[in-house]
Amino acid sequence: METAPAPTTAPHVLVVPFPAQGHALPLLDFAALLAERGLRLTVVTSPANLPLLSPLLAAHPGAVSPLTLPFPSHPSLPRGIENAKGCPPEYFPFFIHALTALREPILAWARSRPADDRVVAVVADFFCGWAQPLARELGAAGIVFSPSGVLGAAVPHSLFRRLVRRPDQEGSGDDEFSVTFPAIPGAPVYQWREISMVYKWFVEGGAEEQIRESVRHNFLGNLQDSWGFVFNTLRAVEGRYLDTPLEDLGFRRAWAVGPVAPADMDAAGARGGEAAVAAASLAAWLDRFPEGSVVYVSFGSQAVLTPAVAAALAEALERSAVPFLWVVGAGTSSGVVPEGFEERAAAAAAGRGVVVRGWAPQVALLRHAAVGWFMTHCGWNSVLEAAAAGVPMLAWPMTADQFVNARLLVDEAGVAVRACAGGFGVAPDPGELAGVLGDVVGDKGRDVRARAKDLAVEAARAVEEGGSSYADLEGLVQEIRMLTEFKPISPEA
């Protein structure tokens, strides 16, 4: 049998991000890795989101191009909003539905390509499931990019596949209803309150049926029409979920290529926005404290703390007397820091606490020697940034995949300690939380700190030549190179 001649130009890949910081940033990091390996990329964006692409475009001129399309309007989204940054989680389903309107202009663009410049693969965020049947229609390989880990992606896909519902009964006990995932290794069980808001919104009738069904078909498209899933994860954390194809991921192939964030501190620091306080200023403050003594506190770009939750956290920080750096964001959460708290923290011995209002250079902060623990909502980007830095975590999940991630980190990887039961509006007991803070910074946190250091070594090794993530990435790139428009791709291929 004769082999087809190798293509004369680099394969052309279409990249479809979801416009939220926690989704777009890792996908753009992954796109950079593809460009470094000689693939040509076109990245779908809108005018307001185009600045997010600037670092990628500047680093790979000629290899990466934007496809700038008007952001689809939607009656349930505020006028002029093109990114979920700073938006409450209940907006996510409407973003998912609105973006389906991009299908036709993308299809028209792809069909207009010359014969020697056809798109051979479509890499789309898992909230852009409509791009998977689009890829099939183009005869391209549809690849789902998951900003979550394998377990964090399998759980919501399982829910939308099986349409799990809690018992039809009244009372607060409903939130304690347990949901089992028998097709996932270990058959994990989660309480209803730990299930993602997007799924609960779907089953509880959060919008008209057309929009809700659009969200469900988003997940089903990933399962039914994709060629495989790419995960920003590594085998040292999720090996048991990568050993065999999972039913809850449609038995699709899986490539684990993480952590995808750049190791270069300057490049990593530029991701996502301009820091509210210069990294050098924060580093100078951290330099005043012993190694591993400071607790870094951040709940990501989406979480909104209620005044009661912020007050409980502030009281716990004061009671514990541990040095801390608390990033509260520039939005609604920044106004809930209790009055007088910052002044008292600054006046305490060694000025032991700082509050940052706005975007912070998280990667650089986590890698500072003085930072010993990270209190986090367990968003997957934050999880991997902490893992790469060797910093153990205080798990305080809020929504989405965060309860799944917290269980993985605490019970399986052993690199985290539970700080709070979690959930939006759930305030911990300040005394109990202060005790946890004191314990982990002291001798009781020694074993978890050691495991976190070991994981950092594993994470660095994974992305180096010969590592598991490096091998998965190289293998995927080689398969994309073999694709041509003359070889239509089916999910069974």
TrEMBL record:
InterPro entries named in the record: Glyco_transf_N (IPR058980), UDP_glucos_trans (IPR002213)
Pfam families: Glyco_transf_N (PF26168), UDPGT (PF00201)
GO-annotated molecular function: UDP-glucosyltransferase activity
Gene3D superfamilies in UniProt: Glycogen Phosphorylase B
Signal peptide (from-to): none
SUPFAM superfamilies linked: UDP-Glycosyltransferase/glycogen phosphorylase (SSF53756)
The entry's keywords: Transferase
Domain Glycosyltransferase N-terminal: 13-133
Protein family (similarity comment): Belongs to the UDP-glycosyltransferase family.
PANTHER family (alphabetical): GLYCOSYLTRANSFERASE, UDP-GLYCOSYLTRANSFERASE 89B1
The protein's name in its UniProt record: Glycosyltransferase N-terminal domain-containing protein
Annotated source species: Paspalum notatum var. saurae
Upper classification of the organism: Eukaryota, Viridiplantae, Streptophyta, Embryophyta, Tracheophyta
